[in-house]
Amino acid sequence: EVAPSLDIQNYMSLIRAAGRDRDVDRAFAVLNRLKASGVHIDVAAFNCVLDVCVSAGDMDRARALVKDMRASKHVDVITYNTLLKGYTAKADVRGAKELLAEMSSLGLRPNDVSYNC
């Protein structure tokens, strides 16, 4: 039996559901299915997975994902604000400051959200 094809919004709903359960592995499994589907992946889909990592406190996976996102040019201010939220939740001031500097080096201007994580 062939599974019905999903559009990007369906995949993002599945990623958000994984986030509600703080299930990082499931979020990455959905992302991998999305990559294999041939559906165009935008930065919002990657940011959804990043939010799952940060919400679950898995900063190692979050940093690795952002590294991959940078390599494929799928980063924006939301990406960095999400990662900043993780650093501040862990009280990692040095990591947060380094991330703000990295944002600036990429030409991404921190905004009000960046400074209120």
Report on the structure:
- It is a single chain.
- With 117 residues, the protein is mainly α.
- It contains six helices and no strands.
- α3 runs parallel beside α5 (77-89).
- The protein is globular.
- The mean pLDDT is 92.
List keywords for this structure.
117 residues; 6 helices; 0% strand; globular
Coarse morphology? globular
Q: Which structural class is indicated by helix and strand composition? A: mainly alpha
**Beta strand count:** 0
SSE order, one letter for each helix or strand: HHHHHH
Percentage beta strand = under 5%
Largest sheet: none
List the helices and strands and how they pair.
Elements: H1 8-20, H2 24-37, H3 43-55, H4 59-71, H5 77-89, H6 93-105
Question: What's the short version?
Answer:
This protein is mostly helical. The chain is 68% helix and 0% strand.
